[in-house]
């Protein structure tokens, strides 16, 4: 196989949305910190939505990005919470994967914390190939060519091979 065609994990992003409820936000931040050992970042509202009681600058969630070996280990744990089952709709056309874990107590090595209660989180896995840096670099940014992009089927095959996932029908 061409080494430039080899798929790898760029990053994993954990996200918990709390809306205007600051109590839920604190619990979400504690959950992500317990899960990863790192402190998450608050996400701020950009629009004013009166029905949700949000306004610009108000914290409405928290997120954390992991890269490298730590991300790979965490993906294995998070997938085992879903019994290694993912639906095809979790994969997008760019080869990225997003899924949720409804209750954190399903994740191996996580114990119930009465301060947090029952809470879930969303996980987004971004895949890349060598050479994807050209879309992020400072000088001479370029687009990724069609033949080098990761398709939905390629990312499904990558996850089946690397994490032994089972595709289930919706």
Topology:
Elements: E1 8-17, H1 22-36, E2 41-44, E3 59-66, H2 68-81, E4 85-87, E5 97-101, E6 121-128, H3 152-163, E7 166-168
Parallel strand pairs: 4-7
Antiparallel strand pairs: 1-3, 1-6, 2-3, 5-6
Properties at a glance:
single chain; 170 residues; alpha+beta; 50s Ribosomal Protein L5, Chain: A; five-stranded antiparallel sheet; two-stranded parallel sheet; 3 helices; globular
The outline comes out as globular
User: Which structural class should the secondary elements be placed in?
Assistant: alpha+beta
Average pLDDT, rounded to a whole number, is 89
Largest sheet: 5 strands, antiparallel
Number of helical regions: 3
Residue share in helix:
10-25%
Which stretches are poorly predicted, pLDDT < 50 over at least 5 residues? Answer: none
Instruction: Write down the oligomeric state.
Output: single chain
CATH class label: Alpha Beta
Written overview of the protein:
This protein is an alpha+beta fold and 170 residues long. The chain has one domain (3-168): 50s Ribosomal Protein L5, Chain: A (2-Layer Sandwich). Helices cover 24% and strands 24% of the residues. The chain is built from 3 helices and 7 strands. It has helices at residues 22-36, 68-81, 152-163, and strands spanning 8-17, 41-44, 59-66, 85-87, 97-101, 121-128, 166-168. The strands form 2 sheets. It has a 5-stranded antiparallel beta sheet with strand order 2-3-1-6-5, with helices on one face. The longest helix has 15 residues, at 22-36. The model has no long low-confidence stretch (mean pLDDT 89).
